[in-house]
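Batch manifest line 157
LIGAND: copper (II) ion
JOB: complex structure
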Amino acid sequence: MIRHNTLLLGALLMGLLLVLSACGGDDDDTGATATVAPTTAVAPPTPVVTAAPTPVPTETAVPTITPAPVPVTRVDIRFFAFNPGDVEIKVGESVKWVVHDDGAIHTVTSDTGAFDSGELSAAPGTAYQVPFEFAGVYPYHCQIHSDMIGSVVVIEG
Ligand SMILES: [Cu+2]
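JOB STATUS: finished
ARTIFACT:
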């Protein structure tokens, strides 16, 4: 116990010296000299009872709910045709038309005005995607090549 107190006293003195020397540094600006308090004036340290730290609840990661990816049905535009020409999907799903390398400009145009891609670039990989929110039959065609036709059948999920 005595040894412990001695260590504490030493630590306190060191801390006091550090504080005083820090103050002395400030004083230097004003031209005053730093004074060191006599060590005999220091009272024996009284044990300080510190409250036990209250455990801080660690934040648990909230699981993020990632929605399931909406299925996308792919229709290839190549050789001047939609392939497959007729697709069936469920409400809420999408159809994605992807241009391949026949080098021509095409459109994906609904016969009933439900959607229209406009002229798609002939660059391979150009894509046009449409989500279908309502059940029904959606015939479509290419405005440039009248023999290019297809349909999307959307059924209730
Ligand atoms: Cu076309």
